[in-house]
Amino acid sequence: MKVLVAVKRVVDYNVKVRPKSDGSGPDLNNVKMSINPFCEIAVEEAVRLKEKGVVTEIVAVSLGEKSSQEQIRTALALGADRGILVETDAELQPLAIAKLLKAVVDKEQPQLVILGKQAIDGDNNQTGQMLAALAGMGQGTFASEVVVEGESVSVTREIDGGLQTVKLGLPAVVTTDLRLNEPRYASLPNIMKAKKKPLDTLTPDELGVDVAPRVKTLKVEPPAERKAGIKVESVAELVEKLKNEAKVIS
Amino acid sequence: MSILVIAEHDNAEINGATLSTVAAAQAIGGDVVVLVAGEGCGAAAEAAGKIAGVSKVLQADNAAYGHQLAENLAELVAEIGKDYGHILAAATTTGKNFMPRVAALLDVAQISEIISVESEDTFKRPIYAGNVIATVQSSDAIKVLTVRATAFDGVAAEGGSAAVEAVDIAKDAGQSEFVKEEIAKSDRPDLTAAGVVISGGRGMQNGDNFEMLYKVADKLGAAVGASRAAVDAGFVPNDMQVGQTGKIVAPDLYIAVGISGAIQHLAGMKDSKVIVAINKDEDAPIFQVADYGLVADLFDAVPELDAAL
What we know:
The complex is a heterodimer. Chain A is α/β, with parallel strands linked by helices. Chain A has seven helices and 13 strands. Chain B has eight helices and 16 strands. Chain B is globular.
């Protein structure tokens, strides 16, 4: 079966992003960009399903500026077979991304779509669920285990109270959580091979999708700073401070 | 226009995060209607009617909603919600699961994890692991919002007397079925609702050593959490993870033990009132947000703390 994996170009997880001084947006000048960590887990899961013989083809899709090709190449180096970039310089919000992915799903007809549960830039946690709704598919979000069994897939989900397992008819949407797998590193030969794998480019117009934003960012600001604290010398001093100064224990 | 709040519940009781969601709805202003969708959820619906400031409770009682499957719940909420100006749910794993589906079915955006209400269409929410706070304005006719419970003081669970109205809408999308749940049982308070949280990180070295934290927790009436590193290493289960993509907590006292303080962990706890860090590395970033830092080996300090309490 064919699996579609969505990958997003985001600020690297090690970067502490700050707002621009004029409050117009986050300051992303000269910051390192990477594949969203949850998307990397999604690619790894697809590759493992292929290694198990469950999946025959992996299509990696990204949406956004031309530079997102780098993240598609990363997915190809990790084991995806071909890539699709839906190229646009427009700001893409989750609903528009879900509509674009729906259009790609209509073209490609995958049996499984795997996405990260959230991107670490916008922290929205919406796209997979929206895609599932638009495509009329079941969803297994925040997955820590994915087992394909014939015409269905069992997904174990990380929920607030513990774990929940649901069974979905195929085709279905899965979004990844951290414990699903540990992504491999791309080897140099695979990075070289990835450069020769096919990468098609589409546009929102070609897919017939209106990507106009629904939500406008009026301003951004830094969060409230915490006041610098003090170092205590001993456990006894700590307990004394918590009792008498902070008054949080009795 | 009225505001629809989707209650989170276990068919018997209303989850505390729902009280914070009602508070956010009241900040928007308007009649607050609470939807309780479940199976055999009469007790929960009755409890919802007692929440202060709620004007009406809708009870959708059907096997299709028994396990809060997103596919079924979203169709129900979209059907009912199309007549409302706002649809709100707590940003728990349940709310995060079905609400974007509701938004897509209604062809509107969702605004995730709001931390303040600026006006009926403008909200603040954290992005980039909470390092940037964005003020965003929706242009959609229906605002679909998830609410970060720690940012809103919950309304009183008692004091209201709203009528419960049955809703006879059965939506079974037929796309998913519930198989099983493994819910951690604990006598300790819920992590997201506890007044005191003590969390362990990679420095704990293994799961057995968390016993030390449990002992301290029991003396303080605290919940026990963990950093991603401790969960990934298999020391403790996933439901204990505090952080950007795990649970968001804001207790009166947060004690971080053997946690270095990665950006992603700080995103889940830096709104705590008082933060204590115990770490043997004096350069650990956790000390930059700690009110009280103790540079010490946790294997000496935690037993000492246990004895001192």
